[in-house]
Design brief:
By secondary structure, this protein is mainly alpha-helical. It contains 8 helices and 3 strands; from the N terminus they run ααααααααβββ.
Length: 192
Amino acid sequence: MSALAPTLQKFFSDRLLTQRQVSPATIAAYRDTFRLLLGFIDDSKNLAPANLDFTDLDAPTIGAFLTYLETGRGNTVRRRNARLAAIHSLFRFAALEHPEHADLISRVLAIPQKRFDRAIVTFLTKEEVEAILTIPDQDTWIGRRDHALLLLAVQTGLRVTELTGLRRDDVILRTGAQFVAVGRVANNDPRP
């Protein structure tokens, strides 16, 4: 039996879930990365995932996978870098579990993130916010809902995923609106 399968399982169950307590979204992103990587190796080297060992995940193979993500799948540099971060995370964990593969692991960890131009973060002006808030038809239930969600997003700075992930239990109705976001209570009360 190869060392890769139990290490990958331990990485997800012990490292990510128990030790780091990462979010379900992170688990899903890492899972998708390794599904893509194992599928890529199966297609390119004709090696079934059950038969893989660490020696099959060398730096040239990981480099070819990253190139495939950009050219074959049309991923952005940012997405490619996120996939590489997941791979690096696994290999940092594997370095502690399998020192016999230290040379291979260090070569994979040496693969750098790809540089890209970052967009300048801009903010909406008061007039732009007011224009957006007038769009939903507040005479309908859906329009009132959309207006409330847009207003909440503008006033709190919630990300779209946080906004769409809100549940009734996340809202705390007291003086000044409060809600639970990203594991913490966010307070929209302007008073100190």
